[in-house]
UniProtKB/TrEMBL annotation:
Cited Pfam families: b-prop_At3g26010-like
The protein, known as: F-box protein At3g26010-like beta-propeller domain-containing protein
Coiled coil stretches, renumbered: none
Organism per entry: Triticum turgidum subsp. durum (Durum wheat)
InterPro entries: At3g26010-like, Beta-prop_At3g26010-like, F-box-assoc_interact_dom
F-box protein At3g26010-like beta-propeller domain location: 2-224
Length: 252
């Protein structure tokens, strides 16, 4: 199902196609492609991977216009393994994190457009998985904590990058901040969990998982959000939408 929590309306999708060679392939990663500024129509993508080597082989795409699923083979030449992280829809493409098995496990962003015919991979800064993606100001953004030269998990700074253009495969640097400077303000160490949809602000959770904070990368200012009662590890951005229902949504 696809649901709008703000209105309580939902759409039940038909069963998706069974993977080819079902003993060897399966779908475990799904993403919603929906931009209310463009249309009330949406797509749901489920990515097909092999069971043993776990690399991307294809994608099933549901369209609310046709109310049907279609399947396309992966358009990535290299063997890409998907990470079970969030998907981000921006500029007509759905992006998620992955890595390339043939290039020393280098981490990349994998993008696919809604017909499954155009694919691309984008190398991420430092080749590191310690980052998060988001849609901000109409562009794909990537926030990452850099590591030292020995590739140890010794964080020195946090940087914010954005995609140079919708057809580009290059991330360009927008802002950086020193971890020492951040710690001097907060007295805690943090990791990046989200990116603000409308400005150059990142959201951070403390390593203890008990504090959520916002950091304005442009003005280098910290704003505390709240203290967390539990050790929270996963976060999702949520912007209530009341103006337009999902296409084909019923009144339930």
């Amino acid at each position: 199902m696809v649901c709008n929590p703000a209105t309580g309306r939902w759409v039940e999708l038909p069963p998706q196609p069974q993977p080819q060679e079902p003993a060897n392939r399966y779908s475990r990663t799904a993403g919603l492609a929906f931009d209310p500024a463009v249309s009330s129509h949406f797509h749901v993508l489920t990515f097909e991977e092999t069971n043993l080597e776990a690399y991307l082989t294809g994608v099933n795409i549901y369209s609310s216009r046709t109310r049907a699923w279609s399947r396309m083979d992966s358009g990535i030449v290299e063997k890409a393994t998907l990470l079970r992280s969030k998907c981000v829809f921006v500029g007509g493409m759905l992006y998620l994190m992955g890595n390339l098995e043939d290039i020393n496990g280098e981490y990349v962003l994998v993008g696919v457009e809604m017909e499954g015919k155009v694919w691309k991979t984008i190398r991420v800064p430092y080749g590191s998985k310690f980052g998060t993606i988001g849609s901000s100001q109409g562009c794909l953004h990537y926030a990452v904590a850099s590591v030292d030269d020995n590739n140890e998990i010794l964080v020195s700074e946090i940087s914010l990058w954005c995609l140079k253009g919708q057809d580009s495969k290059e991330l360009v640097l927008k802002h950086t901040t020193s971890i020492d400077k951040l710690m001097s303000m907060t007295r805690k160490t943090y990791r990046v969990v989200e990116i603000h949809p409308d400005c150059d602000t990142i959201f951070l959770v403390s390593n203890e998982g008990d504090t959520l904070a916002a950091y304005d990368m442009r003005h280098q200012k910290v704003g505390y959000i709240l203290n967390l009662e539990n050790n929270t590890q996963q976060f999702l951005p949520y912007v209530p939408l009341f103006s337009e229902p999902l296409a084909d949504a019923n009144e339930q």
